[in-house]
Amino acid sequence: AQSVAQPEDQVNVAEGNPLTVKCTYSVSGNPYLFWYVQYPNRGLQFLLKYITGDNLVKGSYGFEAEFNKSQTSFHLKKPSALVSDSALYFCAVRDGDAGRRALTFGSGTRLQVQP
Amino acid sequence: KAGVTQTPRYLIKTRGQQVTLSCSPISGHRSVSWYQQTPGQGLQFLFEYFSETQRNKGNFPGRFSGRQFSNSRSEMNVSTLELGDSALYLCASSTAGTGGHEQYFGPGTRLTVT
To answer: What is the Cα–Cα distance from B59 to B12, expressed in whole angstroms?
Structure first.
């Protein structure tokens, strides 16, 4: 079985401050991890993914995520938040050793960046 | 490349009716997945099609069905609509849909059941 948890429903941060959106996962095999962002009345946009290799993954719009195998985490980060980053963020996982399995998404974290 | 397109964007139906939603994937993508998004349940996986075959299925009743055509376009159908089917239905396409391949989402179809 595969699952993903986003422990925070909402994260508030001031513009210019660093932001972190948390994600933990559970898979039997090797994890394939993804972050998506959703703006109001829009579909999800792909931000970044971890498949293998360097634990620090860089993605779109200045976002990055750090894969931590021992803590089974894949937290999304950005050094300096913008008001325009305010949106709903989803973490997703697929068990890389489980054949053609669908993605499992977390419940989402709403990021609010205050001016 | 054009993105994933979904039609219609908005739909209002009455309880008991049926509805068909359409999705055109990114050119060259052979995998199409469907999701239901609601405020209470979040993002729930409905099913995935690859080369006209259903490859994965989520935990939804048989009223929800889908299909994929030879050009990779996909449709999903919901019969005997219930009030609880009101949701944003998202379609996503991918080159293969497995492993490390990311999915690209359409803007969604907002279905309201009255």
So the answer is: 24
CA-based nearest residue in chain B for residue A47: B102
> Does the distance separating the beta carbons of B42 and A107 come in below 8 Å?
yes
Residue B100 and residue A46: Cβ atoms within 8 Å?
no
Using a CB–CB cutoff of 8 Å, tell me whether A104 touches chain B. Answer: yes
What pairs with residue A4 in β-bridges?
A: A25
* Beta carbons of A33 and A93 less than 8 angstroms apart: yes
pLDDT, mean of each 10-residue run, chain A (115 residues): 93 98 93 94 91 92 96 97 96 80 91 96
Distance, CA of B18 to CA of B26 (rounded, Å): 27
Residue type, B74: S
Nearest to B34 by CA among B18, B9, B58, B69: B58
Task: For B42-86, write each residue's pLDDT tens digit.
Answer: 899 999 999 999 988 999 999 999 999 999 999 999 999 999 999
Residue of A nearest to B44 (CA): A105
